Amino acid sequence: MSDSKRIQRNKTRVIDIGTARLGGENPILVQSMCATPTQNIADTSRQVQALADAGAGIVRLAVDSRKDAEAAIEICQQVDANICIDLQENWRLAEILAPSVAKIRYNPGHLHHHEKSLPWQEKVKRIAHWAAEGDTALRIGVNCGSVDPAQKQLWPPEDSVSPMVASALEHSALLDEIGFIRYTVSLKDSDPALVIEANRNFASTRPEIPLHLGVTEAGLPPDGVIKTRIAFEQLISQGIGDTVRVSLTVPNEEKYQEIQAGREILDDIASGRVRSVVQYQTDGPNIISCPSCSRVENGAFVELAQQVKELSKNYLDHQLTIAVMGCRVNGPGETDDADLGLWCAPSFVNLKRGSESLGSFPYDEILEKLKQEIENLIRNRGTVS
């Protein structure tokens, strides 16, 4: 049991997530997400169980098709773990999943991609109805790179926090209105300062709602752990947070590192071993990379992220943000705010400058192309140190 039971927190609602209790005075749950393809039932079942055995109170699986959903249901029957389903754009899969899983996470921004003629409110009501009938919990998962487009239009382009918070509040209000209160909320960004701001703002308005904390696409260890630690220290020390996930770019067989890092951070906070920093050091290159998960279509993604990190050491005098994404779900949108972005397909890598596409290149050519673009960028804007 983590020392997190000694951390004083907001008195949030208590909700059941399978056999776990989340919120209130219950210990903060550490969770992780499988990196194996969900349809590979044998490998994914082994990874789920390994993560649960390492201390994961919740283990998440990505589901984007009926075959994924059917595999996830079979996995639930083979493991002793609380399974959360990460729905992508196919929100109707919640109907068949709800009776078998402990929790379903949906992304408010993704609800706009399928069946655009159906209002998002109707989609949420149906998801909540299926969740209630299936005796499962929900998570409203708001991400910086896939915010509800209607909310983004209401705020200045430079304000990325307000539309995230507004979207989370809007969805929370709807679920409360229809009588479904068995839910958590997450507000994630790759910048720990924005994670801190978003969660503080949400908690100041709705302190009773349990919060799932995380820095999305935190990246490779140790930087990814440091970014996450800063956000967790600032929030949990103020009573904010009921479950956490450390999102690291690591090989499949090392996913347990997410659990270890999360438990260590919580134990340090509980024991008063915290750092005094409030803001992540932004000098020099900042490499953002998503955690390895079952949406990754080529395992070379993790090696590529490591190679990009190594390449960035040649540009320590320059402030650059390079995003390396492993799939078509996070890749297109969550590289837009980076100076340069790479998102990986099965046999090629898409290269971007901000939101502009620069083309697609084989894995064995992408580093040279990236180097050229880095040097073009530096040359065009001058040295920033």
Q: Can you characterise this structure?
A:
The chain has 385 residues and is α/β, with parallel strands linked by helices. It folds into 2 domains: 3-271, TIM Barrel, CATH 3.20.20; 286-381, Sulfite Reductase Hemoprotein, domain 1 (2-Layer Sandwich), CATH 3.30.413. Helix content is 37%, strand content 18%. It has an 8-stranded parallel beta barrel with strand order 3-4-5-6-7-8-9-10, surrounded by 6 helices. A 5-stranded mixed sheet has the order 11-12-13-14-15. Helix 6 packs parallel to helix 7 and helix 8 (223-236) packs across helix 9 (256-271). The chain is globular. 51% of the residues are buried.
Q: End-to-end distance, in Å?
A: 45 Å
Overall number of domains: 2
Mean pLDDT value: 89
Low-confidence stretches: none
Oligomer: single chain
* Shape, principal axes of CA atoms: globular
Largest sheet features: 8 strands, parallel, barrel
**Portion in strands:** 15-25%
Task: From the alpha carbons, calculate the radius of gyration and give it in angstroms.
Answer: 20 Å
CATH topology name of the largest domain: TIM Barrel
CATH class of the largest domain: Alpha Beta
Please write the string of helix (H) and strand (E) elements.
Answer: EEEHEHEHEHEHHEHEHEHEHEHEEEH
Instruction: Specify the CATH homologous superfamily of the largest domain.
Output: Dihydropteroate synthase-like
Q: What structural class do the secondary elements suggest?
A: alpha/beta
Order of strands in the sheet with most strands = 3-4-5-6-7-8-9-10
Helix content: 25-40%
Number of strands: 15
